[in-house]
Design a protein that fits this description.
The protein is mainly beta and about 900 residues long. It folds into 5 domains: about 120 residues, Sandwich (Jelly Rolls); about 130 residues, no CATH class; about 170 residues, Jelly Rolls (Sandwich), CATH 2.60.120; about 90 residues, Distorted Sandwich (Coagulation Factor XIII, Chain A, domain 1); about 150 residues, no CATH class. It is about 5% helix and about 45% strand. The chain is built from 7 helices and 66 strands. The strands form 13 sheets. Strands 25, 26, 27, 28, 29, 30, 31, 32, 33, 34, 35, 36 and 37 form a 13-stranded antiparallel sheet that branches. Strands 1, 4, 16, 41, 42, 45, 47 and 49 form an 8-stranded mixed sheet that branches. Strands 6, 9, 10, 12, 13 and 14 form a 6-stranded antiparallel sheet that branches. α3 runs parallel beside α7. The relative contact order is 0.09.
Length: about 900
């Protein structure tokens, strides 16, 4: 068996690939891969192909060059945007053609405002809505042409689109995420919502417990976490798209500590969604970025006030200062320079040092805010009548007589929901609510700038201020579902001084670096592999190491397209693939866009004699085998047994892997003959023998066929004999009718369902006689396997696969080789027959409405139509005919 792993941007075509195909059986591998933190279900036969993500963005249209705009425009930065008065703007990309049929697809995008995406895999004929970063695995029309459409609301921008997919040929896009390198564990987190529509850029609070001994947490980390909780990452449901987070605080003592995080969810659907938390990396540094999480944030921790965020104004005698705990104002005010709020939640934490007053501008006009005539103000003090109130300008609209205490830290929350304003005061860190007032301001500002202020001789320190999204619906972590999901120990790709370029290639970040793949569990012990990798420039100094024992040992400095054999001690055999790319210092500009590793079981199959034959003693016959997982010059060993395998005699200790060997049958009569072929260097590990015993008879014995024959061909109404370039709709209907009739009249008493491989197109040999005798032709039966057999890509692309109910004797008949007359006679004057590798039966094209045509003459669309028509149906052997 042989499988191929490809990691690249463009499908690799090995120059000697025709030598790598094996004509027997392909194998399907299904396993979970953790690459860049993503758990992927893979199905592969001939190959697994890793490609860079499909990308559209302001850095360049790497995968989608061009598109159609409607109601929006592309700005000077290359972003797609809509204006203030636009309704819904749309952008539709061109199509990207995949190698196989897309099985699942994930779209993630960077944007401002509200942007939804739809995706199509059939060239835009059928679109389906997708959720940002959530894999789409069903409920879409599957095809091989990816196209996407963006829908932008008013004042929205689309900055970047990234698409990852898996297709029917084992293609998987994406090299992983460097930000997840080194992490050892992850868990699912379930976010539930009762919202009626999508929420965008919504901030979700997540409480992470150090262990099960902690209390009041949403998810816990089994103690596998740093003391400061810096080794925490959050991703979308795809396991690779990083979510911005902010570590607000860590409380308690080990092992009962609890950290509070805020995570920004780009798109939260009404049904809620799942995200991942990654943890367990002692070398990880903090990625806590509050500015990326909140709509607006400042903790006044820099050396000077950020005048790109704020406009500062002072009353006469007023002043301001940055102190260790935050921003101190005295007769001073700061107003957001560009940021304005319409709906949302403003939160800040502050304490009054003198004068006992703390003010916040809820919505203010950039000019009038200085005069505060129409501004909405949240006022907190210990003054009579204005202890906890909402004011419009200087007029108090509502107040609660619960004043504040000097030098006491309070947390404040202002909720803006249209014209409704709610002002709340809590003890520090929002532990306990102390006061709340609400007011409906229908006449004033619906949108405005935010700010902080104190009057003259009223000193207050503001520790921080932030703005987040508001929703009247319940958005929270489903603790029960989250608890039910066990933690996963993961093996993911490792990036060391290597990063991803904008086009998805691997590039060196500093001097020497390396990229190490995750562990790929294989379904068998690999004994043969070869490798290829493509760099930019082609002669870049990048070395490849390959391991088949899970990283315990490596075949170092592999040579491109060179074969490596475990039997020759080139590497240690195993079923755990890892590879490593080493970028050398002398090539700082080197990029790697593809890596290919072909790995094989190293199997050998006897084709003839394979059991039931009667050989003539002393006659020269040709032993045939299939071992094309090996190179042609690889040495094999041939032996024979006359006692059913108890003892073997040597035919040759070293034969090249040409597929055949002329053997003089020994002058010993037996009915228990076997032939064995093996790897010369590992004869006890890799070998095959005849499936059943054959006989050797003395010369002059007539070799006659001993198979029952069955009439398989029945009359039917076919098409005209002329060749048709394209099938008409009427012809297609007739084909469907015929196939349906044949399937309905199958013989249901048959014992088993099998899958029959039918050749598409003729194969030839340079020797015309050999071509006529031994090469498969269009429609020939090649091999029969039990239903459920996993076929490789080569078979799926070059053969038809038809299900049939067959009796055991029919199976034996279909897989018997075809005999032909040699033109010679034996001693008794009877004609001699020669056994060929070719089968006796072929598909009766007349029966399915294709008389006068060959399968190879069908266009790709017609072939696809025929495959779909046959899919899922089971026939009797009447669909075949003897040649």
């Amino acid at each position: 068996m042989f499988c191929k792993l490809l990691i690249h941007n463009k499908l690799l075509k090995l120059k000697n690939f025709h030598r790598l195909y094996w004509g027997g059986v392909f194998f399907l591998i299904i396993w979970g891969i953790l690459l860049g933190g993503e758990s992927i279900l893979l199905a592969s036969s001939e190959g697994i192909t890793f490609k860079s993500s499909l990308v559209w963005g302001i850095e360049g249209d790497f995968s989608f060059e061009g598109g159609i705009l409607s109601g929006c425009q592309i700005n000077e930065k290359g972003e797609i945007e809509t204006g203030d008065n636009a309704q819904i703007g749309t952008y539709e990309s061109i199509s990207y053609t995949t190698e196989g049929i897309v099985q699942n697809i994930t779209v993630s995008w960077e944007f401002e405002g509200e942007v939804k995406l739809e995706v199509s895999t059939d060239g835009g004929n059928n679109y389906v809505s997708v959720i940002n970063g959530v894999p789409l695995e069903s409920d879409f029309v599957k095809g091989d042409k990816i196209r996407w459409k963006a829908l932008l609301s008013t004042k929205s921008k689309l900055k970047k689109v990234k698409i990852d997919y898996q297709d029917s040929l084992g293609v998987i896009t994406g090299f992983g995420n460097p930000s997840l390198s080194g992490f050892k564990f992850r868990r699912l987190i379930y976010i539930k919502s009762d919202a009626k529509e999508d929420l965008f850029h919504y901030q979700v609070k997540i409480k992470v417990g150090e262990s099960k001994e902690a209390e009041d947490y949403d998810v816990e980390c089994e103690g596998n976490i740093q003391n400061d909780f810096l080794d925490v990452r959050f991703t979308c449901a795809d396991g690779r798209t990083l979510l911005s987070h902010y570590l607000e605080k860590v409380e308690g003592t080990s092992p009962k500590r609890v950290a509070t995080f805020w995570v920004k969810i780009p798109q939260l659907p009404p049904q809620g969604l799942n995200i991942y938390i990654y943890y367990g990396n002692p070398q990880a540094e903090s990625l806590s970025l509050p500015e990326e999480v909140f709509d607006f944030f400042d903790d006044f921790s820099t050396d000077s006030l950020d005048l790109e965020k704020w406009d500062l104004s002072l009353e006469e005698g007023g002043n301001w200062n940055l102190v260790e705990s935050g921003l101190e104002l005295n007769g001073a005010k700061i107003i957001s320079k560009n940021y304005q709020i319409k709906n949302g939640i403003i939160e800040y934490q502050a304490k009054a040092i003198s004068g006992a007053e703390i003010r916040a501008v809820i919505r203010g006009d950039s000019e009038e805010s200085l005069l505060e005539n129409f501004n909405q103000i949240a006022y907190s003090s210990n003054f009579e009548g204005v202890q906890h109130c909402i004011a419009i300008g200087d007029i108090v609209k509502v107040n609660q007589t619960k004043g504040i205490i000097l030098n006491t830290t309070y947390a404040y929350r202002i909720i803006l929901n249209g014209t409704n304003l709610t002002f709340q005061r809590y003890s520090k860190d929002f532990k306990n609510k102390e006061a709340e007032v609400a007011y409906n301001d229908e006449e004033r500002l619906k949108k405005g700038h935010i700010g902080l202020k104190t009057g003259i001789n009223c000193r207050a320190i503001f520790e921080w201020i932030r703005v987040r999204k508001y929703s009247s619906f319940v958005i929270e972590i489903d603790r029960e579902l989250t608890k039910e999901k066990e933690a996963e120990a993961i093996d993911i790709a490792e990036f060391e001084k290597v990063k991803l370029a904008e086009n998805g290639n691997l590039v060196l970040e500093e001097q020497e670096g390396s990229y190490a793949s995750s562990l790929f569990p294989l379904p068998f012990k690999v004994r043969i592999f070869n490798s290829f990798w493509k760099t930019i420039p082609e002669d870049a100094k990048v070395m490849l190491d390959v391991s088949m024992d899970g990283g315990k040992s490596y075949a170092m400095d592999c040579i491109k397209e060179n074969f490596y054999y475990a039997s020759k001690n080139d590497f240690n055999s195993g079923n755990g693939l890892k590879f490593r790319l080493r970028f050398l210092n002398e090539d700082r500009k080197a990029e790697v866009e593809e890596v290919s590793i072909d790995y094989r079981l190293g199997s050998i199959t006897i084709i003839w004699p394979n059991g039931g034959e009667i050989l003539e003693a002393g006659k020269k016959v040709k032993i045939n085998w299939s071992a094309i997982e090996y190179e042609e010059d690889y040495p094999l060993r041939l032996e024979y047994s006359l006692d059913g395998g108890n003892n073997y005699e040597l035919i040759s200790d070293e034969v090249y892997n040409t597929g055949s060997f002329w053997w003089v049958v020994p002058h010993k009569v037996t009915s228990s003959g076997l032939v064995r072929i093996s790897d010369k260097f590992a004869p006890d590990e890799v070998f095959d023998t005849s499936d059943e015993e054959f006989s050797i008879a003395s010369g002059g014995v007539h070799l006659e066929e001993k198979l029952e024959e069955e009439e398989l061909h029945k009359e039917g109404v076919g098409f005209k004999e002329e060749k048709v370039k394209e099938l008409s709709e009427e012809e297609k209907k007739e084909i469907l009718k015929r196939i349906s009739y044949l399937e309905q009249h199958k013989r249901k008493f048959r014992q088993k369902s099998y899958e029959v491989l039918i050749k598409i197109g003729d194969t030839y040999s340079s020797d015309p006689e050999e071509s006529q005798r031994a090469c498969f032709k269009d429609g020939d039966v090649v091999v029969v396997r039990e239903e459920g057999h996993i076929w490789g890509r080569y078979e799926r692309e070059n053969f038809l696969i038809i299900k049939m109910y067959l009796k055991p004797q029919e199976v034996k008949k279909l897989v018997q080789p075809k005999e032909s007359l040699t033109g010679e006679v034996d001693k008794e004057g009877k004609p001699k027959r020669e056994i060929l590798r070719r089968r006796k039966y072929r598909l009766d094209l007349y029966k399915i409405g294709l008389k006068g045509r060959k399968l190879s003459e069908l266009s790709p669309e017609e072939r696809k139509f025929l495959i779909e028509a046959l899919e899922g149906k089971i026939f009797s052997s009447e669909i075949l005919e003897e040649k």
